[in-house]
Amino acid sequence: MDRRLVGALLLLFAFVGAAVVSSAAGRGLAGAPVVIDLPGPPAVGDCLLTPPHQDSLTGGSATPDFPGFGPCGTAGVGPVVGTIGEVVAVRTLSGADRTVAADSDGCRSSALTYAGLRPHGDAFAVPGTPADDPIQWRYSVDVRTTWVTQVPSLPEASSWAACVAHPTAAVSGPGRLANAFGGGTLPGAYGTCWQSDDLSAAAQIVDCNEPHVAELIALGRAVNDGTLDPEEVRRSCVNQAAIVLRRADPTIGGTLAIRIDPDTLPASRIRSNPACYVTPADERRIIGSLVGLGPMPVTFAG
Q: Which range has highest mean pLDDT (129-143, 147-161, 235-249)?
């Protein structure tokens, strides 16, 4: 279905809608057709501000409701109030290639790249990792993604689709997902945090905007077979924390503790997929994500 046919369909819906309204008013007038311009694509970095109604063209509305995109904010302050998500990729749909809306893996990969992570093998890594690191650290963020098409009620007729990323939580917190690992600050809702010093299956996962004990830096996997020296793994973890927090001393003078899991096993038993995470060095609880902290102080609860 080409653009001209889409325009004809929209014109028909507008005409029928106007006719129904006129009839209901008892005037017996045949409504006049209205030409509706299709919206152009947003830009990567824009935000979805108003969602479309999926049934807008079939629910009796004379004017179809399109998704509303606009600037996310100014001066790095963050998304405007009411922002639904950030546009992380835009694709043109043409000919028979109109299946992009079902490409969830491609949309999610675009979100991780947009966040400043880079593909590394079958995973994503943070830029700046040494080439000779014995651990391949695997990064992710707690993000949901969806393709939003030009005409949501007629996705097969749309000429573009935008991949929109948003956190699970309703409020993301300060910062933008855009380049969070490469110079920005990760909104707390995108982090992975929990309420214990250790990492176990029973760990209570919470929104990083809430007071919490630990935040995940990355999950690791040994580059080579064989045992791993715990101190070597620890040094690699500390280096990753320094890159992610953008602090030469990621402990911030002993305020934070950089931990690995497992942390106390002898070298002969240490597993080849350690976890690297951060906790307070004392009994306090952190508020917000530490990703991109830079020179800012850690925010503690209370």
A: 235-249
